[in-house]
Design a protein that fits this description.
138 residues; mainly alpha; 6 helices
Length: 138
């Protein structure tokens, strides 16, 4: 039955599927596979854009004019937010890679590198900064 739905309906359904179930929906047929692939790329891009926006929110704190008591709270929240977005993005990327949805060799290399960094406890996007970077600015 799912394989007979119009593409427009499939698009709307796929857009509502959570990240954790998205790739499973690609198994219905080739139309679903294509829609899931497009949706996964959209989500990958959205995570990347959001991570960039969140990173930009931290820029005012680099100037040094901050209250150090509130900085610690902001720093913890900021770090958890970036970590969560990164985990969600890497989840989508890994599922796409494992299910043959990534065809560009450069994208494949980017994903493999990011996953390797994450497995070894690294920072795949180079967003991790140390407390000393903030405290030793002039």
């Amino acid at each position: 039955m799912l394989d007979r739905l119009p593409v427009e309906i499939v698009e709307r359904i796929v857009a509502k599927i959570p990240d954790t179930d998205l790739i499973a929906a690609s198994k219905v047929d080739s139309v679903w596979w294509q829609e899931v692939r497009q949706q996964a790329y959209k989500r990958w891009k959205n995570y990347a854009t959001t991570i960039g926006h969140v990173q930009a929110l931290g820029k005012p704190f680099e100037k040094g004019n901050i209250d150090w008591i509130s900085f610690e709270d902001v720093n913890d929240f900021y770090k958890r937010w970036i970590d969560r977005l990164t985990e969600d993005q890497l989840y989508i990327m890994e599922k796409m890679l494992r299910n043959g949805m990534v065809v560009d060799p450069q994208e494949r290399e980017t994903i493999e590198h990011a996953l390797s960094e994450q497995r070894w406890g690294g920072d795949p996007w180079g967003l991790n900064w140390e407390w000393n970077e903030w405290t030793q600015q002039e």
